[in-house]
């Protein structure tokens, strides 16, 4: 499932001052939005039904081409990072490769029915070496404790390079995992998303780690858009589909908590900046679309820590019945280039709703 980004016409809700600054809220000219294509509802349903309502992608390098990582070697299957969702069948920690400073979480995942046709029905191994401070947690307990993962036999999603380990019977893997997410274990509707940067060495970060014979004809190839599978910083996009129906005047409210964070450098990259200047990010219609409501809120995002994420709005379109669809974009950068110090960020998303007409919708 791929998304095509629509051009947005965003305007400030406040008069532009002499010194440029972000608006209090983000506004969109509804009349200028493109019409929604036939796949918009299908994409949103797929994300909501199969991915816990969020989709993760590497912002600049979803494509990994076909260059092998030498160590295993790991060979790309189709030249892309992929998402896998299914049941966590097994968890253990592997530390065999001292030369890589390996401490791999090994997550054996049984693909769910919707992923099995394209990725296979047998277990897929998902691996990543987390930074040292993250190795102590209850979801993926430290090696030697004997404690099982709290997520064992539960459904999870994993995103990262889709490869075969040629040194291990051509085993299919997502390696290294860049994101792992799951439904909150308390039984509520919250979703935990762990963005993670692989902390192993001599494996995925340097040019020397790769064999540049893409077509395996004995001659080196090149591609100007290629980049190592693990970068510093590592930039990820979490997309959360939303819809606003003016007939009900109710809008989604997404709350973001940050339980754990290390070496998050989002605030250093201007392209990841918030669409507006607040811990409450509201997307509003620039003109009334349902009288008597003036500039109704289409979606709202509330953060408890603002510097870790950039909040933007994208892929907006308007359906024939007036419903507005789009994605909340949560942007994150991990890891400092000068120190090669791996980062991670655990985010917790909760969804509720608000009303543009509280008198009618109490």
Report on this model:
The chain has helices at 40-50, 116-119, and strands at 10-12, 26-28, 55-58, 68-69, 74-94, 104-111, 124-128, 155-165, 171-174, 179-183, 191-196, 210-211, 234-244, 250-262, 280-285, 297-303, 310-318, 324-334, 344-355. The chain is mostly beta strands and 362 residues long. The protein is built from two helices and 19 strands. The strands form three sheets. Strands 5-6-7-9-8 form a five-stranded mixed barrel. It has a four-stranded antiparallel beta sheet with strand order 3-13-18-17. A two-stranded antiparallel ribbon has the order 4-12. It folds into two domains: 10-57 and 234-355, no CATH class; 62-211. Strand 10 and strand 11 (191-196) form a beta hairpin. It is globular and about 60 Å long.
> What is the overall number of helices?
2
The percent range for helix content is under 10%
Question: What's the end-to-end separation, in Å?
Answer: 38 Å
Parts with pLDDT < 50 across at least 5 consecutive residues: 1-19
Count of DSSP E strands? 19
Write out the strand line-up for the largest beta sheet, numbering strands in chain order.
Answer: 5-6-7-9-8
Computed structural class: mainly beta
Query: What is the CA-atom radius of gyration, in angstroms?
Result: 21 Å
Any idea how many domains?
2
Whole-number mean pLDDT: 91
Strand fraction band? 35-45%
| Elements, N to C (H/E) | EEHEEEEHEEEEEEEEEEEEE
Main pleated-sheet profile: 5 strands, mixed, barrel
Overall spatial form:
globular
């Amino acid at each position: 499932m791929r998304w095509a980004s629509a051009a947005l016409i965003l305007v400030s809700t406040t008069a532009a001052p002499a010194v440029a600054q972000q608006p209090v809220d983000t506004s969109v000219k509804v009349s200028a939005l493109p019409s929604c294509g036939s796949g918009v509802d299908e994409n949103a349903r797929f994300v909501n039904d199969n991915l816990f309502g969020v989709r993760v992608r590497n912002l600049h390098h979803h494509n990994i081409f076909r260059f092998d990582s030498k160590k295993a070697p790991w060979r790309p299957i189709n030249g892309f990072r992929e998402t896998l969702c299914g049941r966590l069948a097994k968890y253990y920690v592997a530390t065999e490769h001292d030369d890589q400073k390996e401490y791999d979480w090994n997550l054996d995942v049984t693909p769910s029915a919707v992923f099995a046709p394209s990725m296979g029905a047998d277990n897929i191994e998902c691996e990543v070496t987390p930074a040292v401070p993250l190795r102590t947690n209850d979801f993926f307990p430290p090696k030697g404790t004997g404690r099982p993962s709290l997520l064992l036999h539960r459904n999870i999603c994993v995103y990262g390079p889709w490869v075969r380990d040629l040194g291990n019977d051509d085993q299919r893997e997502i390696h290294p995992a860049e994101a792992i997410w799951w439904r909150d274990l308390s039984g509520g509707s919250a979703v935990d998303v762990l963005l993670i940067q692989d902390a192993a060495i001599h494996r995925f970060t340097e040019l020397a780690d790769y064999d540049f014979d893409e077509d395996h004809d004995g001659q080196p190839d090149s591609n100007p858009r290629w980049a190592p599978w693990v970068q510093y910083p590592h930039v990820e996009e979490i997309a959360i589909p939303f819809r606003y129906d003016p007939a009900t005047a109710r809008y989604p409210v997404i709350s973001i908590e940050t339980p754990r964070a290390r070496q998050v450098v989002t605030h250093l990259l201007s392209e990841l900046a918030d669409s507006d200047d607040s811990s409450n990010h509201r997307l509003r219609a620039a003109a009334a679309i349902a009288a008597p409501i003036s500039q109704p809120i289409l979606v709202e995002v509330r953060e408890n820590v603002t510097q870790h994420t950039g909040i933007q709005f994208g892929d907006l379109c308007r359906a024939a019945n007036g419903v507005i669809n789009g994605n909340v974009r949560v942007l994150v950068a991990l890891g400092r280039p000068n120190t090669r110090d791996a980062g991670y960020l655990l985010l917790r998303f909760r969804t509720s709703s608000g009303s543009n007409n509280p008198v009618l919708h109490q």
